[in-house]
Amino acid sequence: MQLVLATNNKDKVKEIKHLLEDLPITILTHDDFLDFPDVEETGDTLKANALLKAKAIAEFCDLPALADDSGLEVDALDGAPGVYSSRYAGEDVTYEDNNRKLIRELQGVPHDKRTARFRCVIAVAWIDQETDTVEGVAEGFIAEDIARGRGFGYDPVFYYPPQQMRFSDMTLEEKNLVSHRGQALQKIRDVIIERLNLNLPE
Ligand code: ITT
Question: Which atom in ligand 1 lies closest to the alpha carbon of residue 71?
């Protein structure tokens, strides 16, 4: 059984592979295909974009495909950058550009008004079964500066109160235990196990 990760984001691949690696399936990525398409995200919700990516890649590879569409919703910015998280500061920008813009936009906003959440929708498009979608959310605050550390994207500015640290202070294992993607992946694991009738060792 093979499952293709329908993403061009190497950081997501790392986190997703880590949580699915003990399943008796072969996980393929963009590196395993020639001309792997970069699917245009024309939807206006995370779910719509996750479905778009999963279905397009399943069709391209003729294999089941798992897509992740995720974003950061900042309350003081009415939910922005949300579905536009990867291109907040413009097309072809770096994570650092996006973080700088976010900190700038929130200048002067007091701590208690800096609430935000990461949301992740994962879709799996199967060849001969209906598509599945699941969601995970992690609630936190936007810090006032950009930290140096691990992780990717907005991790260096996202403070997670239950652990009293930023996502960029966590190891991959620690982040996967609590993050939006980690939660969505736990749910989709169960769906995959059921859909494929997988037998896991106790
Ligand atoms: P694919 O569409 O190829 O999967 P992408 O990076 O364009 O890759 P999205 O459209 O889902 O993915 O954009 C998600 C953006 O949200 C991502 O680029 C980060 O900036 C941010 N993001 C998502 N999950 C994150 C996480 O766990 N930590 C930090 N930032 C995250």
Answer: 16
Would you please indicate which residues are annotated as catalytic (active-site) residues?
Answer: 69
How many Å apart are CA 4 and CA 58, to the nearest integer?
8
**What is the full per-residue pLDDT of the chain (202 aa) written as tens digits?**
999 999 999 999 999 999 999 999 999 999 999 999 999 999 999 999 999 999 999 999 999 999 999 999 999 999 999 999 999 999 999 999 999 999 999 999 999 999 999 999 999 999 999 999 999 999 999 999 999 999 999 999 999 999 999 999 999 999 999 999 999 999 999 999 999 999 887 6
Between CA 139 and CA 155 the distance in angstroms is 13
Q: Which CATH architecture has domain 2-198?
A: Alpha-Beta Complex (3.90)
What's the CA gap between 105 and 103, in Å, rounded? 6
Q: Is 71 in the pocket of ligand 1 (CB under 6 A)?
A: yes
Q: Which of 19, 41, 51, 154 to mutate to test the pocket of ligand 1 (most atoms within 8 A of CB)?
A: 154
Whether ligand 1 lies within 6 angstroms of the CB of 12 is answered as: yes
pTM across the whole model: 0.97
Separation between Cα atoms, residue 49 and residue 55, nearest integer Å: 10
| Residue-range domain boundaries for the chain | 2-198
Ligand 1 centroid–CA 153 distance in Å is 7
Atom of ligand 1 nearest to the CA of 175: 27
